[in-house]
Amino acid sequence: MNIGQAADASGVSAKMIRHYESIGLVPQADRRDSGYRDYDPEDVHRLSFVRRARDLGFPLERIRVLLGLWGDPTRSSAEVKALALTHIEELEEKARHLQEMADVLRGLADACDGDGRPHCPIIEGLEARSVPASSPSGERPISRSSSTRLPSRRSPSPGRR
Prior knowledge:
By secondary structure, the chain is mostly helical. The protein is built from seven helices and two strands; from the N terminus they run ααββααααα. The C terminus is likely disordered.
């Protein structure tokens, strides 16, 4: 089957199939005499495996390890389980950080009247505090208590009207 058919059958876009081949995550497909890629059911099965692992949030390097274990009949299920448990811990940590960010933002939104006046606790909170630690910048989080007790500042900052 051609790359479009393999993409449809596996749920992985043709662009991603080419990318996975270029980084060696999946083997390069055989080529027909015409030069077009030719995928067999085993290729599609491998791509479907990658798609499911990506859907579960596994990073590419860990998928590479999983593919190696999948193809190894002497593998230990303990290795696979350890990878899965490590990934679960990482997902749960990300979920905690996302919940903290939502809580802080909810506190800021609750403190905002949302009327026509320029005073906005959301803007003040973003201006005066750091974002949660899960951000790429690594800044420290706003504490939940500080997000609901922002300093009162009814007049605009200097230079703002």
